């Protein structure tokens, strides 16, 4: 297959906005697809007489597959043209959701979700790698924040809305509607996204650049480990602080919405003073978790702290995506693959750490372990000025 299909010169944010928004829509579909089973576990389990714990593996195995396959799949597809490959991943989401919606037996659901996991392992590497080919270096942070907004919207709006739809008219309908949305997004991306030139596969930078990428990957892993050690059990944290079960959903919705605010802040400042922006976001991030741990189980204080903590986290993915690409150690796609893989190591590992601590020490210890891990991630940032510079390069 040809390595290029059409060359586009990097432009300003305004000129690239339609293409970036189409990528944001694709990210929305990807995250909604990944997380949709979470809200529908009881219904899917009842339909096939399968325990909810087994249905839960449909989500956790997603993260494991992405962690294991993001880098290998990116390397294997490095010589393929970017746009057709990205469209192929969107087609994968269509087929995955359609298979689940129409599944006559649970095995077909599992196969459909496996296809979704394979798709996801490659999709975000392509997404992160595509964005810097559409804009100039001076606009990279803002562009990646805009595209990341689609993923955040998937968590804030896509999952709750599709879950509500599934509850109202059936879980199969929710997956069928999402398959339709994915198909419409396929058409949107096909129309609005220009083709871009392929970069050379593998390493393109020197040992200093590769060291910087390693620092970004290490910090990303630690930060996601810390966040998901606590976030995986946020419902238990809220309920344990006296919050009524009916209020958990609205609180999580507010948490996600506040994440869009920090994403906006990162987008405005990552291209101006990236290091200061990162430190400010992490200061709020860590401070909020400390406040949560220090005030738990005082209900109102815990809710305020949880909103601030999750609000700050909303900017974290775009921070690591931007800095990984700016190391120039590897192609943008491979930089995205490392960010994607290490984030999912953190997601799966954080859930495991939290589960172990919950059984052995109790819920009160989770915020402090979370802070320790995220603090180590910040320490890597502070000790790596080449990876997290004061000026965008």
Automatic annotation (TrEMBL):
<feature type="transmembrane region" description="Helical">
    <location>
        <begin position="169"/>
        <end position="193"/>
    </location>
</feature>
<feature type="transmembrane region" description="Helical">
    <location>
        <begin position="85"/>
        <end position="109"/>
    </location>
</feature>
<dbReference type="Pfam" id="PF07690">
    <property type="entry name" value="MFS_1"/>
</dbReference>
<dbReference type="InterPro" id="IPR050189">
    <property type="entry name" value="MFS_Efflux_Transporters"/>
</dbReference>
<keyword id="KW-1003">Cell membrane</keyword>
<feature type="transmembrane region" description="Helical">
    <location>
        <begin position="115"/>
        <end position="131"/>
    </location>
</feature>
<feature type="transmembrane region" description="Helical">
    <location>
        <begin position="12"/>
        <end position="33"/>
    </location>
</feature>
<feature type="transmembrane region" description="Helical">
    <location>
        <begin position="278"/>
        <end position="296"/>
    </location>
</feature>
<feature type="transmembrane region" description="Helical">
    <location>
        <begin position="361"/>
        <end position="382"/>
    </location>
</feature>
<keyword id="KW-1133">Transmembrane helix</keyword>
<dbReference type="InterPro" id="IPR020846">
    <property type="entry name" value="MFS_dom"/>
</dbReference>
<dbReference type="InterPro" id="IPR036259">
    <property type="entry name" value="MFS_trans_sf"/>
</dbReference>
<protein>
    <submittedName>
        <fullName>MFS transporter</fullName>
    </submittedName>
</protein>
<keyword id="KW-0472">Membrane</keyword>
<feature type="transmembrane region" description="Helical">
    <location>
        <begin position="334"/>
        <end position="355"/>
    </location>
</feature>
<keyword id="KW-0812">Transmembrane</keyword>
<feature type="transmembrane region" description="Helical">
    <location>
        <begin position="243"/>
        <end position="266"/>
    </location>
</feature>
<dbReference type="InterPro" id="IPR011701">
    <property type="entry name" value="MFS"/>
</dbReference>
<feature type="transmembrane region" description="Helical">
    <location>
        <begin position="53"/>
        <end position="78"/>
    </location>
</feature>
<feature type="transmembrane region" description="Helical">
    <location>
        <begin position="143"/>
        <end position="163"/>
    </location>
</feature>
<feature type="domain" description="Major facilitator superfamily (MFS) profile">
    <location>
        <begin position="19"/>
        <end position="387"/>
    </location>
</feature>
<feature type="transmembrane region" description="Helical">
    <location>
        <begin position="302"/>
        <end position="322"/>
    </location>
</feature>
<feature type="transmembrane region" description="Helical">
    <location>
        <begin position="213"/>
        <end position="237"/>
    </location>
</feature>
């Amino acid at each position: 297959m040809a390595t290029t299909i059409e060359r586009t010169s990097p432009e300003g944010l305004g000129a690239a906005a339609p293409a970036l928004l189409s990528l944001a829509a694709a990210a929305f579909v990807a995250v909604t697809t990944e997380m949709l089973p979470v809200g529908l576990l009881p219904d899917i389990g009842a339909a096939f007489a399968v325990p909810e714990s087994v249905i839960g593996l449909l989500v956790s195995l997603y993260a494991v597959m992405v962690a294991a396959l993001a880098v290998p799949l990116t390397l294997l597809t490095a010589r393929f043209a970017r746009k057709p490959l990205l469209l192929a991943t969107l087609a994968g989401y269509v087929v995955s959701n359609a298979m689940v919606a129409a599944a006559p037996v649970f095995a077909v659901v599992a196969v459909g979700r496996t296809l979704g996991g394979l798709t996801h392992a490659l999709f975000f590497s392509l997404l992160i790698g595509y964005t810097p080919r559409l804009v100039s270096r001076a606009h990279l942070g803002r562009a990646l924040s805009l595209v990341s907004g689609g993923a955040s919207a998937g968590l804030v709006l896509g999952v709750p809305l599709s879950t509500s739809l599934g509850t109202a008219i059936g879980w199969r309908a929710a997956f069928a509607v999402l398959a339709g949305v994915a198909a419409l997004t396929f058409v949107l991306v096909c129309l609005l996204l220009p083709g871009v030139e392929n970069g050379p596969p593998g390493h393109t930078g020197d040992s200093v650049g590769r060291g910087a990428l390693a620092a970004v990957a290490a910090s990303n892993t630690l930060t996601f480990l810390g966040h998901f050690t606590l976030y995986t059990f946020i419902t238990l944290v809220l309920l344990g602080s006296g919050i009524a079960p009916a209020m958990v959903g609205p609180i999580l919705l507010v948490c996600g919405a506040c994440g869009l605010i920090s994403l906006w802040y990162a987008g405005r400042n990552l291209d101006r003073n990236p290091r200061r922006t990162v430190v400010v976001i992490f200061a709020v991030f860590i401070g909020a978790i400390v406040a949560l741990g220090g005030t738990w189980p005082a209900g109102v204080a815990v809710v305020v702290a949880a909103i601030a903590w999750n609000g700050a986290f909303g900017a974290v993915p775009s921070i690591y995506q931007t800095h990984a690409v700016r190391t120039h150690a590897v192609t943008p796609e491979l930089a995205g693959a490392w960010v994607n893989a290490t984030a999912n190591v953190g997601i799966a590992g954080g859930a495991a750490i939290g589960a172990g601590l919950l059984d052995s020490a109790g819920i009160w210890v989770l915020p402090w372990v979370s802070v320790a891990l995220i603090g180590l991630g910040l320490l890597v940032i502070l000790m790596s000025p080449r990876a997290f510079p004061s000026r965008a390069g």
